[in-house]
């Protein structure tokens, strides 16, 4: 097994240095970008259903706000660490920067196991966390959103807790809310839709016909399943899918309606009649045109990258490819659409939600997707142009676009 450095904070720092070389990044700005501006650690007591009181730990990392308020999700997980939250807040700065949103990066976490918590306990934790970080968040300061094991309901509690503290409705303090309290139409499909928009652009550049193109998707969850349906509508053939229990493969194409039926009766896509069972590792190495990792980080590594056969890898998941694997894929002529671009549709529609909240005026789903299309196409073109200009992969191109924009803001504001 190859030893790779998989510390997310150190990887994020290396990516800044790597892209910085191509734009002669001012060393002072590089130093500024390598650390979050503020990291708040809080503890708060919560009354559990059995009457006992437990003290939970929460974190909010605010990386950089040179071009706008901090923006980023809140993760509920027993393994949340300060380093992980710091790295995720950095990636949010670059994700917002690459698609040109007027936001900097933030991220939050609460160390807890949501699978062991009742709805009442989850609500009390969510309210207490927001009260603890209230001094540093707000519609013009820092706008949280859902992440791993947080959802629209959690956002509604958070918005309500913050609104009560302020004495008036503050819909714009978090995004990813239910529609009835200021959520945006299209938010649930946004990440997959954004990913499909950049796949369309990449296919155009490569001369790849999407009609009949073979697609494998690792992780048939929210993003993976929506991407499958959208690509199917464009004429792609979905040949492989997987979830945490394993994968299925049919080179002639998988009927997605049958997958939905099978998944609702068995809880998984595995053993779908008419398909061959494969492992998640095998899925990554199939002879397909498009591979979409949509599950976990560190799936394509130095160990398996040389066996990836796809023409395009669209990183719907965050961090599915290690830095070493990225170099191998690039050397092998595989086009990798990096996570900070490929899954930025989610934060883009979060931005649209916030804009609608501030205007108190709401758009149709068609309007939302039309604006998303414009943003994602422009972002792809900018990244592609940067990668061509500097003869680098799209990931480095994406960092060049994002860092150039943030560096300019830092400069004109007089920080460096
Ligand atoms: P999800 O929980 O709905 O789906 C995840 C899927 O991955 C599930 O089908 C699960 O069974 C599968 N999975 C879990 N462990 C696996 C394993 N070891 N091997 C293969 N599959 C496994 O999550 P989601 O919202 O679809 O998010 C997927 C990825 O996309 C994550 O990396 C997330 O950070 C990223 N992402 C999501 C959004 C969003 O808007 N939901 C936005 C940006 C990035």
What report would you give on this structure?
The protein is α/β, with parallel strands linked by helices. Among the domains are: 37-172, Leucine Dehydrogenase, chain A, domain 1 (Rossmann fold); 190-337, Rossmann fold, CATH 3.40.50. It is built from 14 helices and 12 strands. It has helices spanning 8-22, 27-33, 82-98, 119-133, 152-166, 187-206, 222-233, 256-266, 280-284, 323-331, 339-342, 345-359, 365-390, 394-412, and strands spanning 38-47, 53-64, 70-77, 104-111, 142-146, 214-218, 237-243, 246-249, 276-278, 290-293, 312-314, 335-337. It has a 7-stranded mixed sheet, sandwiched between helices. A 5-stranded mixed sheet has the order 1-2-4-3-5. Helix 7 links the parallel strand 6 and strand 7 (237-243). Helix 6 crosses helix 12 (345-359), helix 6 (187-206) packs parallel to helix 13 (365-390) and helix 12 (345-359) crosses helix 13. The protein is globular and about 60 Å long. The relative contact order is 0.14. The mean pLDDT is 96. Nicotinamide-adenine-dinucleotide (NAD) binds next to helix 7 and strand 7. Nicotinamide-adenine-dinucleotide binds next to helix 7 and strand 7.
Please count the beta strands (DSSP E, at least 2 residues each): 12
CATH level-1 class of the domain at 190-337: Alpha Beta
Share of residues in helices: 40-55%
What Rg is obtained from the alpha carbons, in whole angstroms? Answer: 21 Å
List the helices and strands in order: HHEEEHEHEHHEHEEHEHEEHEHHHH
The CATH architecture of the domain at 190-337 can be named as: 3-Layer(aba) Sandwich
Broad structural category: alpha/beta
CATH superfamily of the domain at 190-337: NAD(P)-binding Rossmann-like Domain
* CATH-defined fold name of the domain at 190-337: Rossmann fold
Overall pLDDT, averaged? Answer: 96
For the record, give the distance between the C-alpha atoms at the N and C termini, rounded to a whole number.
43 Å
Coarse shape: globular
Strand order of the largest sheet: 9-8-7-6-10-11-12
Strand content: 15-25%
Give the quaternary arrangement of the chains.
Answer: single chain
The major sheet is characterized as: 7 strands, mixed
Number of helices: 14
């Amino acid at each position: 097994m190859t030893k790779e450095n998989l510390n997310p904070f150190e990887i994020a720092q290396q990516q800044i240095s790597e892209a910085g070389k191509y734009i002669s990044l001012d060393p002072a700005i590089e130093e500024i970008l390598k650390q979050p501006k503020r990291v708040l650690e809080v503890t708060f007591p919560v009354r559990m259903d059995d009457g006992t009181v437990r003290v939970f730990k929460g974190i909010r990392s605010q990386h950089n706000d040179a071009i706008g308020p901090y923006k980023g999700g809140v993760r509920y997980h027993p393994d949340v660490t300060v380093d992980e939250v710091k790295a995720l807040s950095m990636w949010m700065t670059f994700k917002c920067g690459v698609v040109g949103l007027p936001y900097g990066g933030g991220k939050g976490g609460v160390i807890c196991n949501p699978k062991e918590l009742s709805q009442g306990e989850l609500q009390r934790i969510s309210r207490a966390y927001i009260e603890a970080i209230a001094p540093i968040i707000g519609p013009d300061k820092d706008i949280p959103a859902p992440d791993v094991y947080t959802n629209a309901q959690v956002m509604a509690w958070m918005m309500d807790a913050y609104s009560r503290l302020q004495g008036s409705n503050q819909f714009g303090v978090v995004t990813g809310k239910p529609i009835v309290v200021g959520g945006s139409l299209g938010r649930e499909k946004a990440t997959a839709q954004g990913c499909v928009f950049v796949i369309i652009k990449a296919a155009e550049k490569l001369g790849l016909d999407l009609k009949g193109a073979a697609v494998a998707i690792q992780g048939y969850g929210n993003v993976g399943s929506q991407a499958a349906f959208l690509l199917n509508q464009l004429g792609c053939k979905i040949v492989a899918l997987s979830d945490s229990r394993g994968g299925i493969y049919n080179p002639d194409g998988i009927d997605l309606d049958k997958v939905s039926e099978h998944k609702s009766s068995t809880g998984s896509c595995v053993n779908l009649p008419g398909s061959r069972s494969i492992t998640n590792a095998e899925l990554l190495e199939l002879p397909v045109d498009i591979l979409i990792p949509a599950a976990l980080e560190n799936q394509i590594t130095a160990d398996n990258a040389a066996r990836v056969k796809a023409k395009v890898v669209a990183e719907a998941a965050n961090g599915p490819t290690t830095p070493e694997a990225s170099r191998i894929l690039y050397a092998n002529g595989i086009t990798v659409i990096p996570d900070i671009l490929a899954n930025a549709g989610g934060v883009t529609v979060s931005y649209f939600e916030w804009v609608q909240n501030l205007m108190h005026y709401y758009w149709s789903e068609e309007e939302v997707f039309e604006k998303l299309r414009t943003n994602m196409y422009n972002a792809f073109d900018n990244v592609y142009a940067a990668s061509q200009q500097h003869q680098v992969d799209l990931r480095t191109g994406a960092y060049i676009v994002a860092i150039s924009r943030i560096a300019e803001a830092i400069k004109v504001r007089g920080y460096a």
